[in-house]
């Protein structure tokens, strides 16, 4: 005989989701970071349940010149409603954990999913209007240019790099959703009948890994992408290079000369990975720790660099038998 009540483990997961909602009331939900040469420490816009935080006034001053709307918490009805929605979900999850009824868990889970979808669509709509509804009398006008920040991830806006990611509250929302999903899978006899429990759990885990763990290089579009340092178009695939920061941003370079100049002028602790094109192996981007480097006059990079990278020790020796072969740790000491 089946029962409609949940076990203790599922109820604990739902109670944890309720605690996440309460905590999310007091921390920022989202953050948009802006980096530019004139602001070496960057600018930060934080979105709290009840308003905006961070460098709002500085950002408003900059946006005035390009005709973007100024940001004021009072102008958004979402900030008046959002705290009540978050608190309401916290109370709902707590009641579900106390009542221990599977039916109410399913209702609460899908209501939370629907709320998340509506919230992200509303956020995208706000960003679109914010970036496209420009003052025609602005001091700086770039024909065809829009300034819509990314919904999530990185986007270049003139000389500013905009990076949009969940803040502490956003991760609490994600954690709450995962707790509810696990509770549904654990206690849902309807899932077992349809044999979907394991499939949903595996699919959710795979989706989370795919969305949150991009660690490989981004493809370089030769003849189109520009070098981050010299701003020239990257054209020679034999010498191209790329850096990924710990925040997930990618910077592309036309050769090691530009990459090293950029690397030495920025905080080295910010890099997650560096890739350089293999001179001999289809010019694919390879982690620098795996490459063998040779410095010789016969190698002429786009910025007059004389270093080439090889995927194997034998290939490096064959390409320049009279030159010294180096690994990455030795090369960067030489390039300083």
Q: Can you tell me about this structure?
A:
- 44% of the residues lie in helices and 18% in strands.
- With 336 residues, it is an alpha+beta fold.
- It folds into 2 domains: 8-212; 241-335, no CATH class.
- Helix 1 packs antiparallel against helix 3 (78-99).
- The termini are far apart.
Euclidean distance between termini CA atoms:
74 Å
Strand content: 15-25%
Report the total helices: 10
What is the string of SSEs from the N terminus onward? HEEEHHHEEHHHEEHEEEEHEH
Which secondary-structure class do the elements indicate?
Answer: alpha+beta
Strand order of the largest sheet: 3-2-1-5-4
Whole-number count of domains = 2
Quaternary form: single chain
Q: In total, how many beta strands?
A: 12
Short description:
By secondary structure, this protein is of the alpha+beta class. It has 2 domains: 205 residues; 95 residues, no CATH class. It is built from 10 helices and 12 strands.
């Amino acid at each position: 005989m089946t029962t409609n009540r949940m076990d203790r483990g599922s109820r604990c997961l739902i109670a944890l989701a309720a605690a996440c909602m309460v905590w999310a009331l007091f921390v920022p939900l989202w953050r948009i970071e802006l980096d530019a040469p004139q602001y070496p420490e960057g600018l930060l816009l934080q979105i709290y349940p009840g308003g905006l935080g961070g460098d709002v006034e500085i950002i408003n001053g900059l946006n005035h010149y390009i005709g973007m709307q100024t940001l004021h918490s009072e102008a958004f009805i979402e900030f008046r409603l959002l705290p009540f929605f978050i608190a309401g979900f916290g109370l709902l999850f707590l009641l579900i954990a106390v009542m221990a009824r599977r039916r109410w868990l399913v209702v609460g889970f899908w209501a939370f999913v629907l709320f998340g979808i509506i919230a992200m669509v509303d956020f995208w709509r706000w960003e679109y209007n914010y970036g496209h509804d420009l003052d025609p009398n602005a001091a700086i006008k770039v024909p065809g240019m829009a300034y819509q920040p990314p919904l999530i991830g990185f986007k270049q806006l003139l000389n500013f790099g905009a990076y949009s990611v969940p803040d502490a509250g956003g991760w609490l929302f994600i954690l709450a959703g995962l707790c509810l999903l696990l509770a549904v899978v654990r206690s849902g006899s309807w899932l077992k009948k349809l044999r979907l429990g394991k499939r949903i759990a595996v699919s959710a885990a795979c989706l989370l890994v795919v969305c949150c763990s991009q660690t490989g290089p981004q493809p370089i579009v030769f003849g189109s992408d520009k070098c981050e340092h010299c701003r020239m178009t990257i054209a020679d695939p034999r010498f191209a290079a790329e850096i990924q920061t710990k925040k997930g941003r990618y910077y592309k370079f036309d050769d090691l000369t530009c990459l090293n100049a950029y690397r030495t002028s920025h905080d080295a602790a910010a890099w997650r990975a560096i890739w350089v094109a293999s001179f001999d192996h289809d010019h694919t981007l390879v982690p620098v720790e795996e490459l063998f480097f040779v410095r010789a006059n016969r190698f002429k990079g786009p910025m007059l660099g004389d270093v080439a990278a090889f995927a194997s020790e034998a290939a490096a020796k064959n390409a320049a038998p009279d030159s010294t072969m180096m690994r990455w740790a030795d090369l960067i000491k030489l390039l300083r």
